[in-house]
Amino acid sequence: MYVGREESFISSLQRRQPSGCQISLQGCYRSELRRSRYKFEEKLSSNIKQDKKSFFAYSRSRTKSKVHIGPISTSSGNMTNSGAELVNSFNDHFVNVFTAEDTSSIPLPDNRFVSSNRLCSDISFNQQDVLDVLTKLRIDTADGSDELSARFLTEIKDHIVYPLFIIFRKS
Q: Which of 41, 126, 140, 157 could be cross-linked to 134 through a Cys-Cys bond (beta carbons 3.0 to 4.6 Å apart)?
């Protein structure tokens, strides 16, 4: 299948060139590849507000260096040779830095509510507030526990504003 594409590409180039011109296929492939890459990067950069993940995935794939943790010296002064030694060295360090706190002397919080009938009952919002929250959803995030994507919710936001408003008011 690739050979057919190559042959059709060459024949289309030959049709574009005036007779008598020599075609450098390597140079032609390079220029077509550059043009294609430029169009792709232009599309990514123009669509960055809606699709951040694709942009950063592409830019991460184009980096020349990869970050990794090299050998480090242990508490005894020896250098780590394997991944297991590296993990154990980090574990020993974090155990020394982070300690368990004494929870026996935690003070009790003051009761801020005067009476028990005012527990979060006077929160007011309207349908526009619900619509604003739905509009601000980021569509490039993962699905929630209800398995509804943010893209789906933003597409149907005009239809579900009132039912959601009623549900939130009742709860």
A: 157
> Measured between alpha carbons, how far is 150 from 142 in angstroms, rounded to an integer?
8
Domain ranges of the chain: 2-14+23-61, 124-170
Residue by residue, pLDDT tens for the chain (171 residues) are: 445 555 666 666 555 555 444 556 677 788 888 899 899 989 888 888 888 888 888 888 888 777 777 788 877 888 888 888 888 888 888 887 777 777 888 888 877 666 655 555 667 889 999 999 999 998 888 888 888 888 999 999 999 999 999 998 887
Q: Identify the DSSP state of 118.
A: G
- Helices of type H across the chain: 2-16, 25-46, 52-61, 83-97, 127-135, 150-155, 157-170
Q: How far apart are CA 125 and CA 169, in angstroms?
A: 9
What's the rounded Cα separation, in Å, for the pair 165 and 131?
9
Burial 63-80 (b: 16+ CB within 10 A, else e): eeeeeeeeeeeeeeeeeb
CA-based radius of gyration for the chain: 30
Burial class (CB in 10 A: 0-12, 13-18, 19+), 139: middle
